[in-house]
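Example (one chain per record):
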Amino acid sequence: MKRSDSVLPATLVVASPGEDPTALGSPRALAAERFKDVIESYLRYYAAGEGHTARAKRYDLNYFLEFLAAAYGAPELVPVSAWTMQSTKDFVDHRLSLGEAPATVGRRLATIKHLGRTLAERVSGYINPAREVKTPTIQPTRPRGLEPEEIALLRRAADARTQQKKYAFLAVRNRFLLELLLSTGLRADEVRLLYLWQISEDRCWLKNVKTKGRKFRNVYLDTSIRQLLNAYLDQREKELQRKYPSYRDLSAKERGRYPVFVSLYTARLGEPSSFGLAPKSVWRIISDFGRTARALGDHRFTNLHPHKLRHTFAHGLLDTSRDVRLVAQALGHSDVRTTMRYTERTDEQVALAIEEKVSKGR
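Predicted structure:
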């Protein structure tokens, strides 16, 4: 059985990235191992890479290890036996006392629980110490979207960008991206991973949009966004043929394999996937629109991001349809309870409703 080059605990060996850790030893042997080694082994397998999830898991477990190390002098001295249900509860209380949001603490606890569940699956007789620890109660809040006047200002910012002729195609692409997010509520990755073949022939639908949990849904394109789609696709076609003359020789089926939103910076015609936007590009584009809106004189656009546009779409659809289930389907929520967040009201709204009730003598 092969070991990686770094030091790993005897109870959790990882042969190489991508292979399953092998369970060895007993709960007693595991308890004597250095907790730091167990964490590193877990991270190599379950949080490999530099993605957001990987970094979050590493931060969560390092914070927990540092918390336990206060009683041992150094993280390297903390044994697995220091991890108990009580120490986990104390860690949760400690993070909350530092002012961390319950949602953040809940995520850290979820990481710790997953580590414990992993060890319990691989070491016979081991009991996950965090299994019974309760997640902090999170008061549901109504996600904030944009008000009509804010949307108008954002469109003014987009218009200002389209006047920069040096980047004419990018401006058209980014403007359409903004409008598509506002009119469909798509997630950033759902937009980024759209391909031409997914646009229906009548251009009324985006077909088989991959959402969370490996599920798929069809997304309707309203009349106004269809007009912008047609204009964008015309510009996209001209730009691709200008930069890649042989693109015009591709069949409709071959063109369908290319992303809807293209980046030509390092693209190679024979590799359709090379035309896709980078994972952070959609967030950067929308954030830039927010900064431009701020420069126009409105401080509310400091942290504009694609999900706020998704919230805006959800609020608008709920206000017009009054149908939570319909909104859940449009957003691709598998659980309508997630959509119920949009029905939450502020304390001020509750107070106004009560005052109105009193004024009517009810």
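Caption: The radius of gyration is 26 Å.
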